[in-house]
Each structure stands twice: as C-alpha cells, then as structure tokens.
C-alpha cells in the first residue's frame, strides 16, 4: 500500500470517527444540560449535586423525636381466659393480672348485597307527563350500584390495576364477577357522573391569575402520548394528548387566558403567551450549568442559591441567563 492510499484510508477513518463523536456528544447532551431533571442525570452528576448541596444525609436529623401510631378506639372487647393449666391440668382460678392488647383487623370478605328496586311510575294529573320515582342508591344506568362503580374506579386509577386484575380483586373480595369490558364501562359511567365537576375545574383553570403547567411523555396502548398538567393552588387539571405543541394550550386554556404561566423553557409556552414566569428549579439548574462553564456566572448562581436570595429576581433571570449564553 503506497503513501497516498494510506493517507486516503486515514482520512476516511477520521471522518467516520468524527461522525461517531458527534453522535455520542449529541446523546451525552441529552443527559448533561441545564434542562435535564435530576432524575435523569448520570450517577456521577447526581452525587456531585448532592455533595454541593451540603452533604446532608437522608433521613431524620439526629435528635429527632420518633412518632408512634396512636392506639385505635376498640369497637368491641373480648375476654381471653383459661380454666386449667396446660401442663398439669390444675384449675387456675382468678387471674393475678389482666393485659390489654388492642388489635386492628380488616373484616373478612363480605358478600354482595343484592337489592331489588320497585320503581313507581306516575302520570301527573296536571300536565299528564310521566313521572318516574328515583332513589339515590339506584343508578339510572346498568345493574351495578354506586359503591361498585366507585370501587372499580379506585382500583383502576388509584391502584392502577388493569381491568383483568380489577375483576380478580372484586371476585376475591366480594365474590362479584364483572367482565373487564363491563369494568371499562363502569369507569365511563363514573366519568359521566362527574363531568360537571370536571368542567367547573377547567373553567377555574382558564380564569386563574397564576397557573403552573408542565408535560411529560406517557405510553397509551404502546404509543407515545403526552400528559399535560395544569395545577393551581386549589386544584389540578390533567389531559392526555398526542401533541406536545401549542394547540393543546389553545384547547385547554383558549385565547381568553390572561393569567401568568409558571413553566419550563419549552417553546410552545412562549408561543402561546408572553406572560410567563420561568420555573425556579429550571432557573437554578441553568444558573448552575452556566457557573460550571462561565466564570462570570458564578456570583449569579451563588446569589440564587443563598438563603437570602430574592425570589423576585426570577422575573429578570431569563434575560440574564440568555445574555450570558451568547
């Protein structure tokens, strides 16, 4: 192989290596930048951050008084006695002391209560319309009661069980066999029942003076969706959408929203409104990233992390950080 051929081969290898370096640097940037939350940072960075925060150990501080679960009030009392000695068979007589022990126990699985309702129908003598009597414990739709619907919803959304396991839980606990398809329909009925509450929360979110907003990915039947959360001091509104863009903000908040959105640096928020307050945690991460790379940013980061820092500074921080990055 002559010299020219060797040079050409080395150049090709050099280009391949440069491309590989760019690829690896792009992947590394996903986990080492100011916008990376601590949960996704590499272990080395997380340990460094913990050490810089003061080296505090997890758990309660030394000297912290422990807490003990308070005893429950008994619903019944049971006298535990014995007539004869188990070793020699002699009569024991009266006890010389009585020990008190309170036990909390769940009841045994209860059978389903089946109720037959006789619903009266009337004809109004004045307007001749049919009037049907109602009972709060008798749902208008279906054959399962309110408690059954509530239990299915709790198992689904609080305990996050799939419909098949909800079916198994209801059989085990109550002897009630409901198909997975019917369990899905029960959650739909519950949603219909609270629709007015849902709409009222949405209306208050749209009229909030200060509204937090964030989004994160979630799998829906194996496909990537985004769960959007809009919390206020008193409530939280959540939607799951295929999009992570501005159209979700337009759908949820509409153009009439006039409040301030507290959010991260995701661009759709800035496209939706100029009334933005950058998230304090994100600003601190960005200032730390700047301090690690730019000497002029060290005083800024120290000021922000000091106990005397003024939270009002956050309104001008976005501009300051942007200037330092240039």
From TrEMBL:
Residues 29-82 are annotated as: Disordered. InterPro entries: Transposase-related, Transposase_IS66_central, Znf_dom_IS66. Residues 46-55, 62-82 have a biased composition (Basic and acidic residues). Residues 142-293 form the Transposase IS66 central domain. Residues 83-127 form the Transposase IS66 zinc-finger binding domain. PANTHER family: BLL1576 PROTEIN. This is Uncharacterized protein. The lineage of its organism: Archaea, Methanobacteriati, Methanobacteriota, Stenosarchaea group, Methanomicrobia.
